[in-house]
Write a structure and sequence with these properties.
single chain, mainly alpha, Endonuclease Iii, domain 2, Endonuclease III, domain 1, 2 domains
């Protein structure tokens, strides 16, 4: 637990400006952008939404579209058939059931097409400023390498992070872990030697111990 506190403080110091990388002006735009971000980079999503949101930025706009109309606009983000259906069907539900407002409740968000737990947490924390931890591939990888979590799946990682991180730091640490994953702790060839957290990192120290053992043998 002592190392946890040190790691959290260092992450805040290393990434004081960490924030949501998806460009948006409204909760609905963030919801659409997050749906688009599945298996796609935030940079690519921002390129798509820069033009998309100029013309279409409300549930009514998307609800009146066909899947075939939306697909070419989002094709470069991948899995565009599924994403077009999720966005349009979600828009229709928001229009009919929620008076075009994005719900702030986790269960209601997750009832929308294409909205899983990660997307719901992103919207809750960034659009509605509620304490939440969205576990994407970066958060999963970095938190388990650092020992902030010790889990084999996303849900258990989220639960452990909620236990090991003060609630008022959940959103901040979500962004810090993402920034660290992108800039230093990559999936392949992480920059362990220049990482300011390597002395506390299980992944780095386990690898170092293996190297020492190999030298002795």
């Amino acid at each position: 637990m002592e190392n946890h506190d040190i790691i959290l403080k260092k992450l805040e110091t290393m990434y004081p400006d960490a924030q949501c990388a998806l460009n948006h002006r409204t909760p609905f735009e963030l919801l659409v952008a997050t749906i688009l971000s599945a298996q796609c980079t935030d940079v690519r999503v921002n390129i798509i939404t820069e033009s998309l949101f100029r013309e279409y930025n409300t549930p009514k706009d998307f609800a009146e579209m066909t899947y075939e109309e939306l697909e070419p606009m989002i094709k470069s983000c991948g899995v565009y058939h599924n994403k077009s259906r999720s966005i349009i069907n979600t828009s229709r539900i928001l229009l009919e059931k929620y008076s075009s407002q994005v719900p702030e409740d986790m269960d209601e968000l997750m009832s929308l097409p294409g909205v899983g737990r990660k997307t719901a947490n992103v919207v809750m924390s960034n659009a509605f400023h509620k304490n939440a931890i969205a576990v994407d591939t970066h958060v999963f990888r970095v938190s388990n390498r650092l020992g902030l979590a010790d889990a084999n799946n996303v849900l258990d990682t989220e639960k452990q992070l909620m236990q090991n991180i003060p609630e008022d730091k959940w959103t901040t640490m979500h962004h810090c872990l993402i920034f660290h994953g992108r800039q230093v702790c990559s999936a392949r060839s992480p920059r362990c030697e220049v990482c300011g957290l390597n002395e506390y990192c299980r992944y780095y120290n386990a690898d170092a111990n293996k190297s020492q053992a190999a030298e002795i043998i």
